[in-house]
Amino acid sequence: MPESPWWALVPAGSIVIVVFGIEAAPDSAEALTWLALVAVPPLAAFALGWIVHGTAPSWAWVALPLFALAWAAEGSLAGETAAALLSGLSCVALGWLLTCVVEARWLRFGIYAMAAIDAALIAADLLQGPSGVLSAAAPGELPRLQVLEFGSARMGFGDAFVAATAGCLLAARRDAQLRAAALVAILALGFDLLFFVLDTLPATVPVAVALALVARLDSAGVPDQGDEVDRGEPGDGEPDAEP
Question: How much is the pTM?
């Protein structure tokens, strides 16, 4: 795919299309859950075999037992963990592909835009209904891979996608990536206190704020290497591609 700043609209565009698409046609949630079932396992295998640092192509086969566990133990902690790993790894693959076609500065703005839209939709009570419909959709007796859930806790696929994209965006600099991860953890823990008064929170916001803070720290004292995302072939042995 050719590089273009327009690809930076994918994060924000995806949430708008999904929310208003399900609002207009609730049955589209069924199509999305089947799309996730078909697309997530191979994307997770791609991430395991060629993107995640320290792995090898043979690791791609790990996606098969993860899927089997998610199916056989659906509803249990083990099954939910396996399903979440598959969905999370597929987000890493999608995030890596996005960094290959968008300059870092544009992709950062795309993540900021998605967080702002996510927060606005929740504040206007426009996201909760479609999100509930999508989360409840199931491809028969097969695993639901369009949502990450542990017991009563639930995170949308788009939230994980933004976090994975931010990680891939900072993969050229391990120190910045670790700082961002620590900031996301701290901000998310503080942000989660709002659950005492709210039922739904935009999980994209801590990621966007952490990304902005890292960019600010870089511009203040560390040379900005955020645009040096490795866009070479995955699995080429270079450490730059680690998400």
Answer: 0.86
